[in-house]
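task queued by scheduler; priority normal; single chain, no ligands, no partner chains; default sampling; output format set to structure tokens
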Amino acid sequence: MVVWNVERLLYPNGSRLARALNKTAASGWDFAAYRQKIDAIAAMLVAVCPEAVPAIVILIEVENAAIVRDLIDATGWQTLVDVVPADERVTGYDVCVLYDSRQICSHRDAASYSIGNRYSTRDIVDVTFDLAPAGSLRLIALHWASRKMSNAEPLRIAAAWFCYDLVERIMKYPREDLFDRDGEPHLPPRAQLASRWATPLVIVGDFNDNPWDTSVRLVGNASYDQVNSLRMPRFPTIPGTKGIAAYLSLRPRLFNPTWSLSTSSAPPGSLRYNGDWYLFDQFLLSPGLVKDTVPRFVAGSLSIQAPRTITMASGKTRAITDKNFGPIGFDSTRSAGVSDHLPLIADFEW
């Protein structure tokens, strides 16, 4: 699985979103620059995934379906499917979710949410992948409010609570399912409660906060402590409304393997600003993905991809990172850089 913020990849037609982000012909963002960036992104993806098409690709800051088609053509990964939620009304994608139809049977229940950012774009995409015969995988891909915005931290906190509510409804039975039509309480058997708690769930994207920041830790008490995250809660055996109240008080826990990358030297973050490294791009995992069942996260597989250069389809070499392995933002005038973020890759088995 790949997650990468590709930095303001907008279609060069002067859309309202492009104008708001100063990505117009007057600023140098024309079809020639767009084509150059598409080719650079494709070359980077192929360079970091040289052996096979990734099962899932999450790209952040992508404007629309036309761009996705151009990227698929540029990579040659024609088996990728673009997840588009039904009846979606947005001015742009932002969060783009793709999957390989040869490795994943299908997708269902896709939904997107715009939760108060400046633009009517996808802040969150929620989708379930069918992995027959290995069951299913729930994925939440997200992009939270940029630190460049004024007063953005409250927006990230609000987004964290929104995501946590999704996690609760995925890993626990909601209150309305615990009472029948007459209002009589009905708590499912412990085996069913445990099965739901172990739902394979991965939350990925650009949080615009580090793993130790308040917003990220709000999402399922996301922690570096894998043992604590895996610990199964004591499901109540008390009958009636007291048992339901005890069950509803349980709080899901998620494991954040991204935390460990902060002590790495190759490099210790997915972006660098004013000499400091940040780990804004992250993976959060439910207990059901860290156990010896399938699907499962492959321990130790998470990495930040920071090649010094890539080889373009034309055969030319393009600089991707600086001498400190910091990502170089796209520059069409000197044929350097791709994005101000580096991609993260993790392996999953099913």
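post-processing summary
- The first strand starts at residue 2 and ends at 9.
- Residues 152-171 form the longest helix (20 residues).
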